[in-house]
Specification:
Oxidized Rhodanese, domain 1; alpha/beta; about 30% helix; 4 helices; about 110 residues; 5-stranded parallel beta sheet; Rhodanese domain-containing protein; Rhodanese-like_dom_sf
Amino acid sequence: MAREVTQEAFAAAWADGPLTVDVREAEEYATGHIPGARLMPLRTVPARLGELPTDRPVYVICASGNRSKTAADWMTSQGIDAYSVAGGTGAWARGGRPVAAGMHAA
């Protein structure tokens, strides 16, 4: 089972530029995502596992935390050091943290 991190713990880690994977659909991502988050819709995670590092943590986020738990659980079972971000992008934005729009991660 994947570990879950709080918004506060993720915000502290995010400041150091960790790999953040957004498992929402492209339309959701385009309307607002965490700056630097890589889009990898949940349904594509198994096929794209090779894109993920095994030597550092991967933070997984979605809208509210449900899809990210599913993805992080699967990633963990495959040897990825994955953490689901509690509350998702919704809680991130409600907390007044930065949100980017469009299809680019930067």
